[in-house]
Amino acid sequence: MAAIYGVETRALNQTVKRNAERFPVDFRFQLSIDEAESSRSQTVILKRGRGKNVKFLPYVFTEHGAIMAATVLSSSRAVEMSIYVVRAFVQLRAVLASSSEFVEQLNRLETRIEKKLASHDDAIAEMFAAIRELMKPPPSEQRGIGFTAKIEMPD
Asked: How close are the terminal C-alpha atoms of the chain, in Å?
């Protein structure tokens, strides 16, 4: 972030330390040792070994912390970048808001389609049952060949 604001890292850290009351825990936080090691292995800057490790765990700034850092730094680049950061976060929020609206609309559409498919499934099952019923041969009412007499037996 120091590079973005056109100041040295130590100057940024010093300014933040001098204005600590402007950076509550939801504006900036310090990485854990594991997180710092992970970021270090990704950037491949520092070497392993005695005396070559990070002396201080780095700080990470949230949206509000990035804006606050720009306001406490006095470089002209920081002023320019603070405007840029504010605009970037506003655009990011707009994108996130539109994507959440899209997700909501997609969920509503999915629910409607599922309801329609369920009713269509029932209708299709009824059609197959009716077709199977029609496919059964009708019961035959054939008369037997020859003469048959009904004989009633006394009780």
From this structure: 111
**64 found inside a domain:** yes
Number of domains in the chain: 1
pLDDT in tens, 82-133: 788 778 888 888 887 788 778 888 888 888 888 888 888 888 888 888 888 8
Contact 5, 19 (CB under 8 A): no
Domain range for 19 is 2-92
Contact indicator for 70, 82 with CB cutoff of 8 Å: yes
Q: What is the pLDDT, as a whole number, of residue 127?
A: 85
8 A C-beta contact, residue 23 and residue 65: yes
Element (H, E) at 59: strand 59-61
Query: How many CB atoms are located within 10 Å of the residue 67 CB?
Result: 17
pLDDT at 44 exceeding the cut of 60:
no
Mean pLDDT of 59-64: 85
Ramachandran category for residue 29: left, alpha or beta (phi over 0 → left; psi -120 to 50 → alpha): beta
Q: Comparing C-alpha atoms, which of 55, 4, 56 is closest to residue 30?
A: 56
